[in-house]
Amino acid sequence: MKKIIFLFLSALAILFVSCQGNSYSIEGKFSDNSFDTKVAYLQKIDSINSQKATVIDSATISDGKFSFKGTADEPMMGFVSVGKLENAENDTPIGTLILEPGNIKITFDKTNVTLGGTPKNDEFNNIHKVMNSLTDKISKITPQDANNPAIRAEVDTLQKQLQMSTFNFAKANISNKAGEFLFYSSAKSFSKDQLKELIAASDSTFRNRDEIKALVKELDRVKPEVGNPYSDAQLLDQSGQMVSLSDYVGKNKLVLIDFWASWCQPCIQEIPNLIKTYNAYKSKGLEIVGISVDDDKNKWAAAVQNYKMTWVQLADATTMASQLYGVQSIPHTLLIDQNGVVIATDLRGKELEDKIAEILK
């Protein structure tokens, strides 16, 4: 009997140590007490296509503070919000952190979130820093600043830093759920080579998923690049009718295809340059075909009207065009000559205007 009791106690000890090894605690803090008595929720999203987050834990905020405790078998993304994600409070940012063993700290300061306390959250905080800087910089840009080369260069630098930080973190964590989530949620911001690198670094279970196999096939397909003929695609016009890209390409001396969205701040900042260039060269043979990647048709239509975009406006409702042209980030532009050959890509601002002037002089 003593032997049985000893074995039972040993098993309990092993289980206890195992649980301790996977345990995390989260200490949350707000910069003021405005959310006191409200409920903070710790949530996870089970898949990138999930319509709803799953609540892991909740706690009432008191004196600007809250805390959670739990276990995680492997690092994964957690989301902290005042109120559940689908109806979170408007006056606070959503906190994204990595659930991993250790004492995690998360601080909300108005529009910023700061992480720390565990190795992956210390690293993930670098992404937060760049994102906070980028958000702060963009929020201060006025219409008069949109054409300022120094400001645009600073925003571009921050965007590149954010993309690279996210890529590096995803690659280091591609074998766990945190890295997988970043792969899916940030895939459009990664280059073709970066996506291939991430997939190569993943395990066979990840690589054998149907959507990853389909992506690999897509990445290996030759896309229209400089010197190659353009690819036709079906798109939605503003009246709701399906049209072909070939309805517009080859009809003018030069066609600029501009992939954009109403929510894309760099796209919006580029609109004054497009208006100026279009007005200067449309009589000389320039046509612009805007291809929106908006999910919300109303926001797309409103942006076209608000920003006075008078050129052809189409929507990539099926994502066919984005796939054909390998669009990973926006704005993304292509210049196509009257023979349907791509002659330049990703030109913006003065570079774009100079190239059009050179061709249509």
TrEMBL record:
<dbReference type="GO" id="GO:0030313">
    <property type="term" value="C:cell envelope"/>
</dbReference>
<dbReference type="InterPro" id="IPR050553">
    <property type="entry name" value="Thioredoxin_ResA/DsbE_sf"/>
</dbReference>
<keyword id="KW-1015">Disulfide bond</keyword>
<dbReference type="Pfam" id="PF00578">
    <property type="entry name" value="AhpC-TSA"/>
</dbReference>
<dbReference type="InterPro" id="IPR000866">
    <property type="entry name" value="AhpC/TSA"/>
</dbReference>
<dbReference type="InterPro" id="IPR013766">
    <property type="entry name" value="Thioredoxin_domain"/>
</dbReference>
<feature type="domain" description="Thioredoxin">
    <location>
        <begin position="224"/>
        <end position="361"/>
    </location>
</feature>
<protein>
    <recommendedName>
        <fullName>Thioredoxin domain-containing protein</fullName>
    </recommendedName>
</protein>
<keyword id="KW-0732">Signal</keyword>
<keyword id="KW-0201">Cytochrome c-type biogenesis</keyword>
<dbReference type="GO" id="GO:0017004">
    <property type="term" value="P:cytochrome complex assembly"/>
</dbReference>
<dbReference type="InterPro" id="IPR036249">
    <property type="entry name" value="Thioredoxin-like_sf"/>
</dbReference>
<dbReference type="InterPro" id="IPR025380">
    <property type="entry name" value="DUF4369"/>
</dbReference>
<dbReference type="GO" id="GO:0016209">
    <property type="term" value="F:antioxidant activity"/>
</dbReference>
<dbReference type="Pfam" id="PF14289">
    <property type="entry name" value="DUF4369"/>
</dbReference>
<keyword id="KW-0676">Redox-active center</keyword>
<dbReference type="GO" id="GO:0016491">
    <property type="term" value="F:oxidoreductase activity"/>
</dbReference>
<feature type="signal peptide">
    <location>
        <begin position="1"/>
        <end position="19"/>
    </location>
</feature>
